[in-house]
Amino acid sequence: MATAPTTEQEAIRSTLRALLTAECATDRVRAAVLTPDGHDRDLWQRLSADIGLPGLTLPTALGGAGCGPAEAAPAYEETGRALLPSPLLATAGLAAPLIDALGTPAQRTELLPRAAAGTLVCALALPGGSLPTALGLTCDNAAVEWSGGGRCGGVRARPAPDGGWLLYGEAERVLAGHSAGLLLVAARAGGYPRGRTLLFLVPGDAPGLTRTRLTALDETRPQARVELRDTPAALLGPETGPETGTDTDTGTADVLGALTDVGARAAVLVAAESAGTAAAALERTVAHVRVREQFGRPIGSFQAVRHRLADLYVQVRAARSAAHHAAGEPADAGALALAQCLEAVRAVTAEAVQLHGGIGFTWEHDAHLYFKRAAGDELLFGPVHRLRAHAAERSGLFTPQAHEEHERNDETRRTEATVR
């Protein structure tokens, strides 16, 4: 992947930055998160109609722009800089790609143009708050039971007497779940032990559906509890015939594979957002230390402060580099880039609070908006050490063969050193 941004990427970045700088200052962010939707509806419509932000990565035949992660990453980086409260990640980063990958032609034609236009907000509801697990970011989603397992908990799916499906259960920490017009619910169909996880479409006004907005650490990413009590639903994708709903494994590989693919791409987008958040927090901190004085001089002139800022600058640059590299190879580098960016934004925002001094410790200060975004994202998509551990496992770093090869390389280096 080329390191220099393309003309198209720079155009996306500059257009978004100009709009968000004018329309998404921190006072507007605070006001937007208190609305029933949890975001500024007018700004969301402008981002959808004027820029086409939610349709950036959707197919052109279905109303999108057909861009890849390399073009989407700069856009998400700008939304991270502004701490934009919006259903962008929930709709365009998670739900819409799954509909595109698994939906029937009729489902795709009906739903994706509305999602691309910003008129349909979608949310992915996963049982047990298991977002990084289900997306294959912290472990193999086929190796663990995260959707109930057919015994208890999670969301259960059973065929309705008159056709269709009925869902029963609940899901926690659903991004944009309280205001979404369409829920994409992961549920377990079939009994234990040979049931499988499927995805179902549930309208926001379906009977038996209860949604409660949760109090989240990061208010710019609204979350909800979704409860389903024999709620009618439609299977995402084609019905497989009379055997659907019995104890078979039909469809498991497709659904879990699609979740893993979407998770790899979503990791790139969240990494880009985090890199933008870290960059903005650092810029605000640098601006503060230039004007805040102690002992008759700006605190930014003190060597200790400069050293701390220099360390943060290196972390921000490394995070942006990792995010940009992963945008070219999301399947291989997405989780590692996400770990790098989450770690960087956590360090930068924590230091931002410290370097703002006494005022930085008040919850009302803007530094805490960035700090809470960093902490909230790691709770949602991390932790960092598990992201890295799973990436290492997938690459074969911890296999016995890799360990033996590492030992042989060490022995070779020791021998060469002795000869020299």
Automatic annotation (TrEMBL):
Cofactor: FAD
Alphabetical list of InterPro entries matching this protein: Acyl-CoA_Oxase/DH_mid-dom_sf (IPR046373), AcylCo_DH-like_C (IPR036250), AcylCo_DH/oxidase_C (IPR009075), AcylCoA_DH/ox_N (IPR013786), AcylCoA_DH/ox_N_sf (IPR037069), AcylCoA_DH/oxidase_NM_dom_sf (IPR009100)
Biased composition regions of type Basic and acidic residues, renumbered to the chain: 402-420
Domain Acyl-CoA dehydrogenase/oxidase N-terminal as annotated: residue spans: 6-118
Pfam family, one: Acyl-CoA_dh_N
Domain Acyl-CoA dehydrogenase/oxidase C-terminal: 268-394
Signal peptide interval: none
Region (Disordered): 393-420
Family annotation (SUPFAM superfamilies): Acyl-CoA dehydrogenase C-terminal domain-like, Acyl-CoA dehydrogenase NM domain-like
Keywords: FAD, Flavoprotein, Oxidoreductase
CDD domains assigned: ACAD (cd00567)
Family according to the record: Belongs to the acyl-CoA dehydrogenase family.
Protein name according to UniProt: Acyl-CoA/acyl-ACP dehydrogenase
